[in-house]
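Students often ask why inverse folding is considered easier than folding. One informal answer: many sequences map to the same fold, so there is more than one right answer. In these notes we will look at a single instance of the problem. The structure comes first.
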C-alpha cells in the first residue's frame, strides 16, 4: 500500500501546481493543502523514523515547496507547463527514494541514491534563492530578511547533504558555521550587482555547491590543496562566464 504514495503524491503535486497557475486566488488554499499533504505523507511513510530523520524530511519539503513556488515566477507559459510536468514526476521519484530510505537506510547507500538526494537539495536551494532574489526585485522585499532566510536554508539544506554523506575528518558544526557565514556574505554581495535574479541565484548556488563538494571530496585525501585549487579555478571560470554572458540591468 505504501508504494502507491509516490504515484499519488506526483498526481496531487501536478494538481496543486496547475491549480496555482490557473487560479492565483487559490494559492493560499493550495499551499495549505499541499503542506498538509507533505506532512501527512511524511508521517505515513517515515513513521517511527520521522523524528530521527527530521532533517531529511524538512529538506524534502523545502524542495517540494520551492518547486511549487518557482512555477509561479516563470514567465513563459510553455516552459512553465513543461516544468510543472517534470517537477511533478521528480517529486514522485523523490517520494519513492524517501520510501526506500524509510524501510532500509542501507538500501539508500547501496543503490547510490545519495548523490540523487544531494542534487535535489541543491536544486531546492537554487529555486529558493531565485524566489528570494525575484521578490527583492519585483516587490522590493527586505534584503536583510532574505539574508536570514538564506542563512536558515544554508544550514538546513547543508546539514542534510553533509549528513547523508557523513564526515570523517571535519567537524560538521564548524563546516556548517563557515558555510552559512560565507554563503550569506556572498549572497548579500550579489544583491549589489545589477544582474538578473536567475544569475544571482546560480552564482550563489555555485558557492554553496563548491564548499560542500570541497569538504566531501576532501575526506578521502591526505591534502586538500590540489582539490581546492581545482575547484577554485572551476568556480572562478563558471562565475566569470556567467557574469560575461549575463544581461546587466
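Output (designed amino acids):
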Amino acid at each position: 500500500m505504501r508504494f502507491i504514495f509516490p504515484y499519488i503524491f506526483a498526481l496531487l503535486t501536478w494538481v496543486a501546481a496547475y491549480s496555482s497557475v490557473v487560479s492565483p486566488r487559490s494559492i493560499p488554499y493550495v499551499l495549505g493543502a499541499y503542506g498538509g499533504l507533505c506532512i501527512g505523507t511524511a508521517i505515513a511513510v517515515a513513521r517511527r523514523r520521522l523524528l530521527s530523520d527530521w532533517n531529511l524530511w524538512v529538506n524534502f519539503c523545502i524542495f517540494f515547496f520551492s518547486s511549487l513556488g518557482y512555477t509561479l515566477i516563470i514567465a513563459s507559459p510553455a516552459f512553465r507547463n513543461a516544468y510543472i510536468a517534470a517537477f511533478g514526476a521528480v517529486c514522485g521519484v523523490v517520494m519513492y527514494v524517501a520510501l526506500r530510505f524509510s524501510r532500509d537506510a542501507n538500501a539508500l547507500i547501496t543503490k547510490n541514491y545519495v548523490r540523487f538526494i544531494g542534487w535535489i537539495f541543491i536544486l531546492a536551494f537554487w529555486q529558493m534563492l531565485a524566489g528570494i532574489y525575484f521578490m527583492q526585485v519585483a516587490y522590493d522585499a527586505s534584503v536583510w530578511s532574505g539574508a536570514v532566510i538564506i542563512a536558515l536554508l544554508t544550514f538546513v539544506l547543508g546539514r542534510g547533504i553533509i549528513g547523508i554523506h557523513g564526515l570523517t575528518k571535519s567537524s560538521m558544526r564548524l563546516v556548517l558555521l563557515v558555510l552559512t557565514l560565507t554563503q550569506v556574505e556572498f549572497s548579500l554581495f550579489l544583491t549589489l550587482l545589477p544582474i538578473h535574479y536567475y544569475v544571482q541565484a546560480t552564482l550563489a548556488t555555485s558557492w554553496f555547491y563548491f564548499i560542500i563538494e570541497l569538504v566531501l571530496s576532501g575526506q578521502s585525501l591526505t591534502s586538500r590543496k590540489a582539490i581546492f585549487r581545482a575547484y577554485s579555478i572551476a568556480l572562478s571560470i563558471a562565475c566569470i562566464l556567467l557574469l560575461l554572458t549575463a544581461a546587466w540591468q
